[in-house]
Amino acid sequence: MLRQQADHGDDRPSRSLADYVAPAQTALADHIGAFAVTAGLGADELAGRFETDLDDYQAIMVKALADRLAEGFAEWLHQRARREWYESGPAMSGEDLIAERYRGIRPAFGYPACPDHTRKATLFELLDAPSAGIDLTEHFAMTPAASVSGLYFAHPAARYFNVGRLGRDQVEEYAARCGMDRREAETWLRPNLAYEPT
């Protein structure tokens, strides 16, 4: 995982998602999960039929509903993982769930804490996502579009954050760890680079 490199000007740590997984030799009980869900199976076909009939409104509504269902499914699965792994006591109210007052996060590859979309390939291989009808394009977009994937972190201190700008040193090390050429890593991380690649 990548790490923030910005100087916050105070005692705040420079975060990495790796911080939310305890080393194997510690007594802490950490949990990390992986998921890939879709609500797009059939939705693309239905939206396509509406588009063929020149009914753009219905096509947009089908796509929007499928997107919301995929997000809802990911959130439901996160709640189930929390309840089965480490969360006890009474179920949270809808208000507390919406306010994300629960322990843990579910970041997705391509988002601010882990901006490299190429890591989805490893995730999809781990989960055998194609068997559920979810694939990746050559640019690592998920198909069907109404799909959500990512990781679940249960660590009590886990918070969402933005890795921000990355220096050449971290990009070089990250590329080596991921088994890719530095220039390829720079291509995928371009919006986060704190330098002009050569």
Chain-wise SSE layout:
Layout: E1 32-38, H1 43-52, H2 56-85, H3 94-98, H4 119-127, E2 135-136, E3 142-143, E4 147-153, H5 168-178, H6 182-188
Antiparallel strand pairs: 1-4, 2-3
Helix pairs in contact: 1-2, 5-6
> CATH superfamily of the domain at 31-163, called what?
Vitamin B12-dependent methionine synthase, activation domain
- Per DSSP E runs of 2 or more residues, the count of β-strands stands at 4
Strand order of the largest sheet: 1-4
Structural class: alpha+beta
Q: SSE string, helix = H, strand = E?
A: EHHHHEEEHH
What is the percent of helical residues?
A: 25-40%
Please state the second-level CATH architecture of the domain at 31-163: Roll
CATH topology type of the domain at 31-163: Cobalamin-dependent Methionine Synthase, domain 1
First-to-last CA distance: 23 Å
| CA radius of gyration | 19 Å
Jot down its keywords.
alpha+beta, 9% strand, 198 residues, 6 helices, Cobalamin-dependent Methionine Synthase, domain 1, two-stranded antiparallel sheet
Give your account of this protein's structure.
With 198 residues, the protein is of the alpha+beta class. It has a domain at 31-163: Cobalamin-dependent Methionine Synthase, domain 1, CATH 3.10.196. Helix content is 36%, strand content 9%. It contains six helices and four strands, in the order E-H-H-H-H-E-E-E-H-H. The strands form two sheets. The chain has a two-stranded antiparallel ribbon. Strands 2-3 form a two-stranded antiparallel sheet. A hairpin with a 5-residue loop joins strand 2 (135-136) and strand 3 (142-143). The chain is globular.
